[in-house]
Please model this.
Amino acid sequence: MPWHTVELPIRPLYKSPSVWDKHIHAHPERVIDISNGDIACDSYNKWQRDVEIASELGLHFYRFSIAWSRLLPKGYANYISEDGKKYYNDLIDALLDKGIEPLVTLYHWDLPQSLQDLGGWTNPLVSDWFADYARVVFSLYGDRVKTWITLNEPIMYCDIAYNTAVIAPGIYSPGRGSFLCNKHSIIAHAKAWRIYDEEFRPKYNGKVSLANQIMWLEPATEEDFEITDIARQFLTGMYAHPIYSKEGGWPQVIEKIIAEKSKKEGLKHSRLPPFTQEEIELVRGTYDFFGFNYYTSRTVATAKEGDKIGPWPYTGSSDIGVHLTVKPEWKSAATKWFFIYPEGLRKQLSWLKKEYGDIEIFITENGFASYDSGLDDQDRIQYYKDHLEQVLLSIKEDGVKVTGYTAWTLIDNFEWMDGYNSKFGLYQVDFEDPERKRTPRASAHYYASIIKSHSLDVDLKISDEL
Model:
């Protein structure tokens, strides 16, 4: 009996689910206000207004992320969404038409769920999947985009994710999944950087690096100086030392601690997967600047035997035996992890220069979270003023090569597990309005005046129309 076939129309795939789509729909209770990011601020449809806002502020550049699951909805490079390709082309061209440079992030936590089903960032093959994705993006937009971030905040989707299971992918694997994710992310970044360096830099002469969130750490007492140095390596060095140090590989002090701890646990091999010499050479030197996001700081105290220690990196680490706390004079912002310490930004910049040399540093995020959705956000203005003053001191007095500063963020958005409770935007977004109306806050006027005057000596109460 012959086979009979029916031809069905092939429907284009616009976007596939990401790990965050699945995570918050499967566990809506984990988001404070039981919301989701299905529409959020709707920049997919309102991107033209967002470009107008960037122009109103006078921005020199606009940072945005490409969604892997939108451009490559199957996760792999053999299927490119025409819709996704057009969306980012239109956005990039519109920015350039306004004289605004696009600063593009390849990955901001939204792994295609189909790749997570295969292990995601704990699968060593993810570095090849990411490299293929990066090559597609560079080939599509590299002629116009000159500054790239490969990965945004791997400490969040590795350490926070696997040490707590609170954020996507919702898997609890402290000290194992977190370390695998860490290593594979570093290798993925390196492969993407090598691809750009060899295939695209000769034509386009752009810059590529990654960006991580770094908290400034300082000792709680005089007895905590040594452990604080170790904690800095555990926080910053685990993602920076393999790339920015002269010797490459993991920070030796951390490698030794985890190996010894693993042995005491009865394991034959360290929970921290080693780099091969080939991997060390692949990763070392894969940067054009140091990108980092700064919001908050912590103090470091040595944990006592038998102490209950919270999860790394916000409250402590059982692996290195520390508690992380805050000083009572540090005011809190919205969201439980956020405490304000502007001087920490300058101290962190100086530490990076001392640790990795006189390199170019790009502050890729810095901003203030508030539960107040109103327009007269004087607390946000004060936060920006205080932190920008520290950046200026770092440049003028410490000689740090800070070449860029990114206010986070342009507009209110879906803030992960905080949902729509915490607001970061210079512009308010009305999430009850189907049109997601954007309205400038006082901080937007303040920030625009700084850009226009190239000075911090501006009126904090400025209220000119944008």
Observations:
- Confidence is low (pLDDT under 50) at residues 1-10.
- The radius of gyration is 22 Å.
